[in-house]
Amino acid sequence: MKMVGIMKRFFDIIIVGGSFGGIKSAWDLRNKLPRRHRITLISDKPETIIRASFPRVVFEDVPLEELALDLARNFRGTGIEFIPDRLVRIDQTGNQIITAEGKHKFDFLVIATGARHAYELIPGSREYARSICDPSRILETKKAILDFREGDFYSGVGAGYTPCDGPPWKCSWA
Ligand SMILES: Cc1cc2nc3c(=O)[nH]c(=O)nc-3n(C[C@H](O)[C@H](O)[C@H](O)COP(=O)(O)OP(=O)(O)OC[C@H]3O[C@@H](n4cnc5c(N)ncnc54)[C@H](O)[C@@H]3O)c2cc1C
Question: In terms of domains, do 148 and 126 share one?
């Protein structure tokens, strides 16, 4: 990566990922840095879902949409620019990121794109288990729990595919 020119008057800071990590980084940097430094947050979705509240979707019937935070609205007028776009590649020598829609130069880059659910690490977990952590599967988990009548119920965490170990335990007590 190229060295940042010491004489530069302002820096372009790009943060990729619009959830806990990205949002916290953006706010912390905005609060600490003078306004002449530009902070841009790029995320592949226009909103973020507050994942920590997933158990409320399942057990308190809270609609999933209520957990959504509109990123453009959240950052309007804050000095943090939000761009909905997907990171495709990082060009380290050119100090730029390539996104689905274009290219963005940066002086500093924060990658906060989160973790991937590695179902392949536990054979059968995609087909036979339900997740309380995976945003794309939370409604199917809710349905499975509501439809559950009798039988054995196993709850587990770890092996690389949970972002947080507490929720599955909490759900088995509910
Ligand atoms: C039920 C539940 C309860 C939890 N409770 C807690 C708790 O009490 N306390 C706690 O600290 N944590 C808790 N967690 C964990 C917490 O939610 C995660 O640790 C946190 O969401 C991780 O944040 P992140 O920003 O690193 O990644 P993520 O939340 O995974 O966000 C990644 C972001 O990057 C975006 N992105 C991904 N790929 C790209 C790309 N190529 N280009 C652009 N954008 C991209 C995604 O759209 C998303 O906005 C809980 C999690 C769950 C599921």
Answer: yes
Test site for ligand 1: of 27, 64, 97, 113, most ligand atoms within 8 A of the Cβ: 113
Number of structural domains the chain divides into: 2
Task: Kindly state whether residues 76 and 156 are assigned to the same domain.
Answer: no
- The secondary structure of residue 93, as a DSSP letter, is T
Ranges of beta strands (E only) in 45-141 are 47-49, 68-70, 80-84, 87-91, 96-99, 103-105, 108-111
Domain range spanning residue 57?
A: 12-111
Which atom of ligand 1 lies nearest, measured to the CA of 22?
Answer: 25
| The overall pTM is greater than 0.85 | yes
**Which residues does a 6 A CB cutoff place in the pocket of ligand 1?**
16-22, 42-45, 48, 51-52, 54-55, 86-87, 112-115, 132-133, 163-164, 167
For 8-37, write each residue's pLDDT tens digit: 789 999 999 999 999 999 999 999 999 999
Claim to verify: residue 45 and residue 100 sit in the same structural domain: yes
Does residue 152 form part of some domain? yes
Q: Which of 63, 83, 111 is the last residue of a domain?
A: 111
* Candidate of 164, 165, 172, 173 to mutate for ligand 1, largest count of ligand atoms within 8 Å of Cβ: 164
User: pLDDT tens digit string along 156-166?
Assistant: 776 555 567 77
> From the centroid of its chain, how far is CA 25?
12
